[in-house]
Amino acid sequence: MLARQQTTALSNVSLGGEPQMSFGPPRASMYGDDVQRARTSQLIETEEARSRRLDRMFADVLGAQRTTPIAREFQFQQIALASATAPRRDTSVTFDSRYFGLDQPQLRQAPPFVGYQSVPYEQEVRNLLQRANTNFITQEPSQWNLTAPSQNKDCGPATLAMLMKFKGIAPPGVDPYNAEALVRQMRIEMTGGADHNQVTSVGQMREAALRYGVKSTLVQSLSEIDAAIGRGQMVAAMGVPNRRLADGSVAQTWATKLTPDQYEHGSQTHFVLIVGKDSRGNYIVNDPLSKIGALRATPQEMNTFIHAPKAINGGIAFS
User: Fold this and answer.
1) 8 vs 177, which has greater pLDDT?
2) pTM score
């Protein structure tokens, strides 16, 4: 009996102003009789079919005839080596950002993910979190950053590194598949050195992003964050994930719901990357302190996070 092929339900996700993608209903010959036929309103695609489709797109971008994972890595290394001698701050390596969460090649433009209720809500959220995880980086050692140093202050560089991956930008000579190498380079861009215990600022992040052609504006309220996302911008939000109040209690954010095995708890000012919102208005957050990948945050949790001492009640919206 043929083994049941794994299928992946894809939410009807919009990438800013990009047209929504449609793969059509599955063919019976592809899925076999032991798999229930999908409803015509739900988009379903096998992992094998998705891989073939993405490989065709990658071939169109690089002019390659065949792209295995090894071939893709070799092609990128050739691009990186060819650009290694270029002026670092004048030229950046661009790569197929589709492999980091975007279904269409984008250069220096990565609209946030926005969910729609064409599939059950929990499935929609799982899809959005899965897409956000393709560019996820932690500041502490984890499966998303195997060589990160422990007990560091790299939330700013890690947040900027995730933004660069979403936009398909990598500094010349830096492998974007190497999370810690990308975080380290972003720290050098922000501070001029590689000291992992030096705190970083909003101004340093904006200046570093601008060197790679990424413009930004300050947003200083939850409504301004929402407006930026509505314009197709991702936001680096600044706040405190675990803030103790005057009565001794802890202000409730997405972090306070997680255990130490799930989150590297701290009470210092912190950067996170808001990559989009779901259909109910909750935020999809790439938090560098998370040990379980991208997270969902309610508007109240985000508002509590950004309204903290030494924060700016908002963050940075990137164009």
Assistant:
1) 177
2) 0.67
Please tell me the CATH code under which domain 215-319 is placed: 3.90.70.10
Q: At what angle do helices 155-167 and 179-191 cross, to 10 degrees?
A: 110
Check residue 47 and give its pLDDT.
53
Domain spans in the chain, listed from the N-terminal domain onward: 215-319
Alpha-carbon distance values, 194 to 5, 177, 269 (Å):
46, 19, 20
Burial of 172 (0-12, 13-18, 19+ CB in 10 A): buried
| pLDDT for residue 177 | 87
CB atoms under 10 Å from CB of 17, counted, come to 9
Q: Is the pLDDT of residue 84 over 50?
A: no
Per-residue pLDDT reduced to its tens digit, 22-44:
333 333 333 333 333 333 333 34
Two structure tokens written together for 196: 């992992």
